[in-house]
Amino acid sequence: MFEHENDTIAAICTGTGGAVSIVRISGPRALDAVRSVWRGRRMPGPDCPRMMLYGHIVSGAAEAGAGEPSLAVFMPGPHSFTGEDVAEIHCHGGSFAARRALRLVLQAGVRLAQNGEFTRRAFLNGKLDLTQAEGVLDLINAGSERAGLLAERQLNGAVGSVVREIRSEIVHLLSECESRLDFSEEDLDWMPPDELCGRIVSLHGQATNLALTARAGALIRDGVSLVIAGPPNAGKSSLLNRMLGYDRAIVTPVPGTTRDTLEESVSIGGISFRVTDTAGLREAKQADPVEALGMDRSRQSLGAADIVLWLLDASATTDSFSAQFEGMDRAESAVRGKFIPCWNKMDGASMPPDGLDRVYASEKNEAENAIEKHPVFEHISARTGDGIDGLFRRLEETAWDGLPPAVQSGAAAVSERHAALLEQAADHLNAACECVRAGSWELAGSSLRTAAEFIGCITGETATPDVLDEIFSRFCIGK
Ligand SMILES: Nc1nc2c(ncn2[C@@H]2O[C@H](COP(=O)(O)OP(=O)(O)OP(=O)(O)O)[C@@H](O)[C@H]2O)c(=O)[nH]1
Ligand SMILES: [Mg+2]
């Protein structure tokens, strides 16, 4: 917890490994701090704002030698990221140059910034609302193109502007209720109660619909966990390799090749899938202790997955199908997410896809016309790549699982934090409507005020320091 102070802060704001490292300084002493370490033909200052200048960083006036060649820029407030005077020193990459420059800057009466403190200052100085600040964090953490796009939209105010419209309408209706209290004896031109109720109900709908976009937001931001499971030798590792486009997992004809779970990320339809290849599941009596441990991990993965892709070996002898179906049924009961059965090795299958599905149907003693009751099988060959496009479409659809297209486009998908506040606001809007119907203007006003506070917490107008601490502590130092 820290208060917003008017002191000057600095931090290295680039990650390790790049060609350039940047030290950022914000606050009233930003320019003095750079001047105290800078030697160059021209000093970046108010006379040349936002202009990158070449010079050298030295440890002090007494030190001999030219010092570290660097670039520096000065951005006077309020036209800067934080809204304060900001200076940046661009040093050579690697850990030495930037750390040395930072140490020198800190000696000039500047303190090290805390996590997210630059962005927090930008928020406190009105440069960003809270949803935009969160958009900054989402952009940093974006694991797919779609997640990046969503973060960018939020950073540009997509969520903030919708939320502010809702809030300003609530505040308008609140003033309607209050004016009835303040001028109860006077004949003012009031909004009829039915119209007032209608507008509150419409706001309730907007808040609830916006809250519903959180599921799409979570999907886009966090991605999906997909576990590939099935009996040994079904081709699970081959499929992982096929999905990634390179040989990540060891593949052999020996059943029980994969011993431990293996996770990699792949982007499908702009959604990030964390794909886990697992050790094949079979009767424990056939397994050695190492394989048994691997199978334990496979079962744990099954329980935790959003989607389980269960592979069956279509090239195996038909005698083996019963055992394969039994294994699948046993596993399915441990799955909490969605389950997609999939025949692999279709290139070596002795039966066409519908034949395989019918074998499953007859095994289940289902009438042929009831086949559609069965899980819909995918049919692929991890070896040739046949059916993989269809499988990808199925995975994408399963991930979205019926979310309406408007939500899928993710124009303004809110976070869990926003959704919780919107739902609370919606409850108070409901209560306000009841009160208006009952003619209890004071209670209606109080419910509307609470609803406005919850909504204001989304953009930060009514957020407490605790909320800000929680949000900005998730940022890294230098952001
Ligand atoms: N014909 C054919 N062979 C395949 C296909 N997919 C995998 N195989 C072969 O099946 C054997 C087993 O493949 P893996 O990918 O190691 O199978 P797995 O399910 O990971 O096996 P475990 O790790 O032992 O559980 C290998 O010889 C693969 O080349 C396929 O689509 N068609
Ligand atoms: Mg394997």
Offer a concise description of the structure.
With 479 residues, the protein is α/β, with parallel strands linked by helices. 46% of the residues lie in helices and 15% in strands.
Overall shape: flat
- Could you spell the SSE succession in H and E letters? EEHEEEEHEHHHHHEHEEHEHEHEHHHHH
CATH superfamily annotation of the largest domain? P-loop containing nucleotide triphosphate hydrolases
Q: Main sheet, how many strands, which sense, barrel? A: 7 strands, mixed
What's the end-to-end separation, in Å? Answer: 17 Å
CATH class of the largest domain: Alpha Beta
How much of the sequence lies in strands comes to 15-25%
Which compounds are bound in this model? guanosine-5'-triphosphate, magnesium ion
Q: Using only CA atoms, what is the Rg?
A: 30 Å
Mean pLDDT: 89
| Low-pLDDT segments, ≥5 res | none
How many structural domains does the protein architecture include?
Answer: 3
Number of strands: 13
Structural class: alpha/beta
**Strand order across the biggest sheet?**
3-4-5-6-2-1-7
